[in-house]
């Protein structure tokens, strides 16, 4: 019996079926009817475990409905935080780091997640969490400039940037993208021996601008959820 993994972020929902730690078909939904979308997935097949990590709490009535769609509903948040990770970490970050520890065993890693926020997390060679930082994500920076300065337009992420802008638009493009690149390169220089892992919606965009060797893992959170869920199932069967 397959498991259903769901990540509800600030801008979109991602989901995947899994067998053990292996991800199957993945789905993406961006809209208001999150519960209806999840129910459309379970209408075809009832999962053994449905594991959900969400950026905001699920309404209690939604939780009750989802419990009927699976053998066990696993809502992951700080109340069931995994050992070895601080309680202040959101569970999507925890899931990402679980996946990194699984993929790069006994390796020190610097993990960048490019989403609404840009998070940077550090794992040492023994698998211990060493801390991390949060700053605004790429699109959040563009939106902030437009929102808090009446004279600046809303700019989209450009395909290419100039080294020095020669208009308001290209100055914003260069300022935001170059600023993030300087940020990334600074973190990489701090821990030059670390494996560098990119994930999140803008991971491929910034990976193409890197000169260093990096790994891009697009479904890192879902992969971590698969590992966490598989561990739960194995313990349950003992």
Features:
238 residues; alpha/beta; Nucleotidyltransferase, domain 5; 2 domains; 5-stranded mixed sheet; 7 helices
What does this 3D model show about the protein?
The strands form two sheets. This protein has a five-stranded mixed beta sheet, with helices on both faces. It has a five-stranded mixed beta sheet with strand order 8-7-6-9-10, with helices on both faces. With 238 residues, the protein is α/β, with parallel strands linked by helices. Helix 3 packs across helix 7. The chain has seven helices and ten strands. The longest helix has 23 residues, at 168-190. The protein has helices at residues 34-42, 60-67, 91-103, 138-148, 168-190, 203-207, 220-237; strands spanning 3-8, 13-19, 22-29, 49-54, 72-76, 109-114, 117-123, 129-136, 195-199, 215-216. It folds into two domains: 3-77 and 225-237, ATPase, nucleotide binding domain (Nucleotidyltransferase, domain 5); 91-221, ATPase, nucleotide binding domain (Nucleotidyltransferase, domain 5, 2-Layer Sandwich), CATH 3.30.420.40.
User: Strand tally, please?
Assistant: 10
CATH topology group of the largest domain: Nucleotidyltransferase, domain 5
Number of folding domains? 2
Rg is 19 Å
Spans where pLDDT lies below 50 across 5 or more residues: none
Named at the architecture level, the CATH assignment of the largest domain is 2-Layer Sandwich
Provide the β-strand percentage band: 25-35%
Distance between the termini: 17 Å
Return the CATH class of the largest domain.
Alpha Beta
Major beta-sheet overview: 5 strands, mixed
What spatial form do the alpha-carbon principal axes imply?
Answer: globular
Going across the major beta sheet, what is the strand order? 3-2-1-4-5
Mean pLDDT: 93
The H-and-E topology, N to C, reads as: EEEHEHEHEEEHHEHEH
Query: Percent of residues in helical segments?
Result: 25-40%
* Total helical elements: 7
Instruction: Tell me the quaternary state.
Output: single chain
């Amino acid at each position: 019996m397959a498991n259903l993994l769901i990540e509800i972020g600030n801008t979109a929902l991602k989901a995947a079926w899994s067998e053990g730690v292996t991800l199957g078909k993945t789905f993406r939904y961006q809209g208001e009817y999150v519960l209806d979308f999840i129910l459309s997935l379970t209408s075809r097949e009832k999962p053994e475990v449905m594991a959900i990590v969400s950026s905001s709490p699920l309404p209690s009535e939604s939780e009750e409905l989802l419990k009927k769609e699976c053998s066990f509903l696993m809502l992951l948040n700080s109340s069931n935080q995994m050992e070895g990770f601080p309680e202040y970490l959101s569970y999507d970050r925890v899931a990402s780091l679980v996946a990194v520890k699984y993929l790069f065993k006994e390796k020190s890693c610097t993990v960048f997640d490019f989403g609404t926020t840009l998070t940077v997390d550090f794992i040492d060679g023994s698998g211990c969490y060493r801390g991390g930082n949060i700053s605004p994500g790429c699109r959040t920076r563009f939106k902030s400039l437009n929102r808090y300065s009446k004279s600046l337009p809303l700019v989209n992420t450009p395909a290419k940037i100039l080294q020095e802008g020669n208009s308001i638009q290209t100055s914003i493009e260069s300022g935001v993208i170059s600023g993030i690149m300087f940020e990334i390169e600074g973190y990489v220089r701090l821990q030059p021996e670390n494996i560098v892992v990119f994930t999140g919606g803008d991971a491929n965009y910034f990976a193409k601008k890197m000169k260093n060797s990096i790994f891009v893992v697009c479904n890192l959170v879902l992969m971590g959820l698969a590992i966490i869920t598989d561990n739960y199932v194995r313990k349950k069967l003992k």
